[in-house]
Specification:
By secondary structure, the protein is mostly beta strands. The chain has 2 helices and 12 strands; from the N terminus they run βββαβββαββββββ.
Length: 291
Amino acid sequence: MRSKIVVAAALSLSFFTTGCGASVSTESEQPQDSAVQSTSPTTEASPIRKKAIGEEAAAGCVEGAGRETCDVRFTITSITRGESCSAYSTGILELPANHEVVRFNIEAETAPEFSYAQANGVLLTQYWSVVDADGYMVKDPDIATGCDVDANVVYKFLEPGTKQRSSVPIIAPVGATTLRLSEQGHGWEWEIPAAAEAPPAVTTPQVESPAQPTTQEWTPITTTVVQNPVDSRPNPYPNSQDSYGRDTGTSGATLVGCGDWSEYQPGTGIYSDGSLDYAAQCLPGGSMAPN
């Protein structure tokens, strides 16, 4: 379904643990979420710290110092479930049975210089997981490539002195309760809100219409389906533009290859005029998909 970034050596466990040397108080805010140290965390430290949506977390912090020393500070700004994406609703792609799309939006800010080089990979996809309704963890869930995806924060190594935001749709079991970022049982977790209920239907009182003439007229209905001229299939990304800022499918260029999945979203085609646009041949299993 997508490319996966794997770090050759796992991040030090200390990136996901609280500072050691003192008990962790549940009544006062700690100066940092994590600190890099050589000793083990105290047994009183909560291995998984619960975070509210909109609450900042941090990693790669100097022990005993304030948050301004942290290499990475990040915030989950929203989590939604049950998204209906065009590629799935039109049948171009299929969600696994009993699964749904859960989307989380994340903002991250890095220090001008990293105190600990490994902090650049703390948000990579391999450290994310969801917990289903029965309490089972699903590690490194697939990105929902049939939806609009902007996942650079979790796809790419972080650079110092930058701010980034991403909107990441993942495929999760229906009813999953928790989004987690962790390694070896230490890290952070956020509650996945329940799906918003649809407002109750408004009942309109029935009004008797006047008698209609006996002669009935019938007007045929013509439905026009917009087709992608490149591959003659419905475009799952409505209102999208190619890299030249033109509306999708208007360049008239020829598909000549597919973008490398380590750099581009699966389904990204490269055209003869140098532009990038959606191409079904470049999806997993497509005729021109990268090996």
